[in-house]
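TL;DR need C-alpha cells for one chain.
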Amino acid sequence: MIFGLKKIEYTEVVLNNDDEVTPIDMIGKKSLPILEVEKDHYLGESLDIVDLIDKRFGQPNLVIAPNKDIEDWINQSTSLIYELAIPRWAFSNFKEFTTLSSKIYFINKKQSLLGDFTILLKQSKEKISKINDQLKILNSLINIENQTVLSGGWSYTHIKLFPLLRSLSIVKDIQWPNQVSLWMNEVSKQCGITLHNDIAI
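>> reply
TL;DR here they are.
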C-alpha cells in the first residue's frame, strides 16, 4: 500500500508459503513482509516498513490522526473476517502456493489456529450474516474517511483497514454498503492494489 500510495518503484519477491529458511535467515523468524532496506539489511513488521517508507520518501502521507471508532471495529471484526477468508485462500491460486507442499503447509498451520476449514466453510452463511451486520456499522463510521482519502489525507487506520477488507473481498455474498465500497475502491485505485472480488468463493 505505501509503495503504491507514494508511487515508489520496488521489486516484489514472493516466497512459497512453506519457505521458512529465507525469512529466518533475514530477520530471525518466519514472518512476512520483509523489506530489504539495503544489501543484507532487512526490516520486518508491516507497520515498521510503512513508517520507514512514509518518512523517508517525500512528505509524509500518514498525517491524519487514527480513527478510534474504526480501530475498535477492526479489533471486533478481524477474527470473523479471517474465519471467512483464510479457508478460501487455501483454494486460491496465489503466488505463494506454487507447490503442493506450500499449500499443505498453509492449511495445516492455519487449521491448527482456526479449526477445520471444512467446518468453517459450512458455517459461512451464519458468519456472512454477522459480518454484513458489522459492515453496516462500519458504513456509518467511514464517511469522513472517504473525504480524507479523496483529499489526499491518510492515517494508520487506513493502512490497517484496507488489507482486512481486501481479505474479505474473496468471500461471495458479502453485502458491501455504499460508503465502505466507495472507500475500498478509492484506496485500491490510489495504491494500485486489486481487490479479490473477481476470484471470490
